[in-house]
Write a structure and sequence with these properties.
- By secondary structure, the protein is mostly helical.
- It has two domains: 88 residues, no CATH class; 85 residues, Tetratricopeptide repeat domain (Serine Threonine Protein Phosphatase 5, Tetratricopeptide repeat, Alpha Horseshoe).
- It is built from ten helices and no strands.
- Helix 1 runs antiparallel to helix 9 and helix 3 runs antiparallel to helix 4.
- The radius of gyration is 19 Å and the shape is elongated.
Length: 190
């Protein structure tokens, strides 16, 4: 029972660190772009259509934002992200370049890099790592994740699950918590 409580405590700590990081990033990046009610309405419209898998309509709403504010970082980011998600790598790259030109130190550039890297991971390889983790094969799962990461740090989008898996090995728990905290609170570029 004590082991179970410790694992739950580790999971909660990493989860709360993750929530704090995501909440602060989302609020800070989105708030600056929604102070104008008309812009907020367009971003809401884009989110509405994106959630319903109509990225063409979501992009139309974002294009309206860009007509008024050509360097709107949130709109440029979403145009790149939606293009990437729909498989249009050329458009995704062009929108990312526009974002980089408009806001060179924007943390959303890192997010786009992570999303691009995530798309390059073979789904079967990721599924295998996740299955090993779910079955309690921590060393096998960590090895599979390290292969996915090609010896680099975990992608932002996979860091939480990697460190949770790592925390499944009692001897690695302190390291997992420390690395998860560093990953969540790493300074933004610039």
């Amino acid at each position: 029972m004590k082991k179970h409580k410790l694992s739950l405590a580790v999971i909660r700590a990493i989860y709360l660190v993750g929530i704090a990081g995501v909440a602060s990033f989302s609020a800070a990046t989105f708030a600056a772009d929604t102070t104008n009610p008309a812009m907020k309405a367009l971003f809401d419209q884009a989110a509405y259509w994106h959630e319903r898998a109509h990225d063409d309509l979501a992009k139309d709403a974002l294009q309206k934002v860009l007509l008024v504010e050509p360097d709107n970082a949130q709109a440029l980011y979403l145009m790149s992200l939606y293009s990437m998600q729909s498989g249009d790598k050329t458009a995704a790259s062009q929108w990312r370049e526009k974002l980089a030109a408009a806001s060179p130190d924007d943390p959303r550039l890192t997010s786009l890099n992570s999303a691009k890297a995530m798309q390059s991971i073979p789904p079967a390889q990721l599924a295998s790592a996740r299955q090993m983790a779910a079955q309690g094969n921590v060393s096998g799962a960590l090895s599979a994740y390290r292969t996915i990461f090609n010896g680099n740090q975990p992608l932002d989008s996979l860091a939480t699950e990697y460190y949770l898996t790592m925390a499944g090995d009692k001897s690695l728990q302190p390291q997992a918590i420390a690395q998860a905290a560093m990953a969540m609170f790493k300074p933004s570029p610039g």
